[in-house]
Amino acid sequence: MMMAVDGRIDCDMTAQLTGVDHYYATLKAIDAPTRISGRVTAQTELTTGETFRGPAGAQSSKPGFAKNQTAASYNVVLDTRGTLLWPNDAGQSQPHLIITSEQASQAYLDYLTKQQISWIVAGKTQIDLAQAMNVLGDEFHVERLAIVGGGKLDGGFLDAGLIDEISLLIGVGVDGRVNQPTVFDGRPADRKPLPLKLKAVQSFDDGAVWLRYLAQ
């Protein structure tokens, strides 16, 4: 994750910071080729922005999965209601894998299968992250992944106890604007902070700093 000194992570903002050129090198260095993002990030950066419109009264989905592609790594996207449209994934070296809840319709899952995109359904009204990660590991053989979505996605994984390492590239600048996303967000107010252990610090000649922490 890249952020400004004040912890804000808006992509358009961080793209303007000195140090952004180190982002993909630091991401590669943590050895987590499978990457996971949320619906908003995916809709902005990975799709055309169009949404799926299924038939009226479509049947809801049930827990399960479909392995429509086999690969060494995946681009995983959380899409709770099953709304994003995708190009056909045939022949992709790092195919998409969509995780939804039972709020997604069976028609949407059929659409994903037609597009040769793998999917996992976990959770009734919200995605059950722990269940989804178990399926991802057991059935798709993903042992390690990098969360590259927004603060609420990071906060959800943090709250579920599914984060073992935090990698932060701090760009040389401050945002300071109101209502901007931060690295972790959305946890209930009664949650306690997660203790960390410093793993490594690397500074760059341009002033950027890369921090790595292990969850305790």
In short:
Residues 50-208 form the Bacterial bifunctional deaminase-reductase C-terminal domain. This protein has 216 residues and is of the alpha/beta class.
What brief labels describe this structure?
6-stranded mixed β-sheet; Dihydrofolate Reductase, subunit A; alpha/beta; 216 residues; 6 helices; 5-amino-6-(5-phosphoribosylamino)uracil reductase activity; globular; 4-stranded mixed β-sheet
What does this structure look like?
With 216 residues, the chain is α/β, with parallel strands linked by helices. The protein folds into 2 domains: 1-32 and 150-216, Dihydrofolate Reductase, subunit A (3-Layer(aba) Sandwich); 33-143, 3-Layer(aba) Sandwich (Dihydrofolate Reductase, subunit A), CATH 3.40.430. It is built from 6 helices and 10 strands, in the order βααβαβββαβαβαβββ. It has helices at 11-14, 23-29, 39-45, 106-114, 129-140, 151-159, and strands at residues 2-3, 34-37, 64-66, 75-78, 96-100, 118-121, 145-147, 165-170, 196-203, 209-215. It has a 6-stranded mixed β-sheet with strand order 3-6-5-4-2-7, sandwiched between helices. A 4-stranded mixed β-sheet has the order 1-8-10-9, covered by helices on one side. α4 links the parallel β5 and β6 (118-121). The longest helix is centred in the middle third of the chain and has 12 residues, at 129-140. It is globular, with a radius of gyration of 18 Å. The chain starts with a strand and ends with a strand.
